[in-house]
Amino acid sequence: MPTTALKRQFISDTEGNPVGILLPLAEFRLVEPFLRRTLGSETESERLLLMEQAATDPLFLTDLRDAMQAFAVSDGEWWDPEQ
Which of 24, 39, 40, 58 is deepest in the core (most CB within 10 A)? Predict the structure, then answer.
């Protein structure tokens, strides 16, 4: 019976630069407490500032446009249902 070997998987941007990593759950659980302490430390004003910056972030805007195009038909059906 074959076994599955879980390994870290690196996520790269279009230029090949590493930007993220997928971890097996066992490894994630080792770093989870640190991540919760570190990532959960933003204040409300810091989070609001990040949201304001998204309005001019080219990557965010591209993702937003792609999502809007992907759901254009279903959005039209929801907001403008045929009578």
Answer: 24
Sign of the CA dihedral running 58, 64, 65, 70? positive
Q: Rounded to 10 degrees, what is the CA torsion of 64, 66, 70, 74? A: 30
* 39 or 29, higher pLDDT: 29
**Distance from C-alpha of 40 to C-alpha of 46, rounded to nearest angstrom:** 11
* Closest of 58, 47, 65 to residue 13, by C-alpha: 58
Beta bridge partners of 20: 11
Which backbone phi and psi does 14 adopt, to 5 degrees? -65, -15
* Spatial distance between the Cα atoms of 49 and 14, rounded to a whole number of angstroms: 27
pTM value > 0.70: no
Q: Which residues on adjacent β-strands are paired with residue 12? A: 18
35, pLDDT greater than 90 = no
